[in-house]
Amino acid sequence: MTRAKLLLYAVLALGLLVVVGPFVWMLLSSFKPEAEIRAVPPTWWPHTWTLGNYRDLFSRLDFPQYFANSAIVAVLVTAGNLLFCSLLGYALAKLDFPGRKALFLAVLGMLMVPGMVTFVPQFVLISNMGLANSYAGLVLPFLAGPFGVFLMRQFLLSIPDDLIEAARVDGAGEWRIFWRVVLPLCKPALATLGILTFLASWNNFLWPLVVATTDDKYTLPVALALYSIGQNRAYYGLLLAGAVVVVVPVLIVFLALQRHFMRGIATTGLK
Q: Where do the TM regions start and end (predicted)?
């Protein structure tokens, strides 16, 4: 093995340690008592193993309700992005209509706008529509996004136009072409968009914190943040146990769609 390869493997191993290390520490520390978590210097391996943090998580919080809220919001947002972004991407990539280039430039421009710029206008709009503290208010602003439209449009450019023209010659309409011909070929891009959207929605904190005003609409990140902070201090054991539980669904989704996700990242943008 050459010296260059050894150096490359060493750099990659260091990068892996930097990325994975905090997650391993989070998992191990969730089994530590509160005093050991606060110990200085910190310990890596728990001296005293305990499930008390997880018992507190399920006893102090209405965990099934908060988990269900997060799941409902994340699934609806993900499904909306998969549908609407693929439809918009198909129109921008394969349909010829006046203003298509201008519309695509508008999508690119929206990618450059920070989310906090539109946060207040979105909240005012949702409040005026009477959707505050509702699932609709939590879901509606995120049913489609410029990144998803851009991702799907770039992937759809790689699908041969001859395939679509052949379907049109056979008498298929645009809706049937989209569902029966185009969409089955978009599995890698759909998997990529689904994972990224689900991850962003599942971990979203600020929007649910502002829109949800009662306990029955809190998502899991909001509930963890509110109930793990006491009057005088934070309960880090509860936070770490909650963080582990929050990460598990994302890992399951990623592992289930990993093969398509890697293909989507590798092929999106190729033409």
A: 7-28, 66-90, 102-123, 135-156, 177-200, 234-257
Q: Is the dihedral of CA 262, 75, 209, 148 positive or negative?
A: positive
Report the b/e string of 14-27 with b at 16+ CB within 10 A. eeeeeeeeeeeeee
At residue 232, the 3 state secondary structure works out as: coil
Q: Is 126 within 8 Å of 141 (Cβ atoms)?
A: yes
pLDDT digits (tens, 9 = 90+) for 130-154: 898 999 999 999 998 899 999 999 8
pTM of the model: 0.81
Q: Report the pLDDT averaged over residues 30-46.
A: 82
Residue 271: band (very low, low, confident or very high) from pLDDT cuts 50, 70, 90: very low
CATH placement of domain 30-267: 1.10.3720.10
61 Cβ contact list (under 8 Å, min separation 6): 223, 224, 227, 242
Per-residue confidence band for 173, with pLDDT thresholds at 50, 70 and 90 = confident
Please provide the distance, in angstroms rounded to a whole number, between the alpha carbons at the two ends of the chain: 36
- Whether residue 54 is predicted with pLDDT greater than 70 in this model: the reply is yes
Output the DSSP codes for 72-124.
HHHHHHHHHHHHHHHHHHHHHHH---TTHHHHHHHHHHHHTS-HHHHHHHHHH
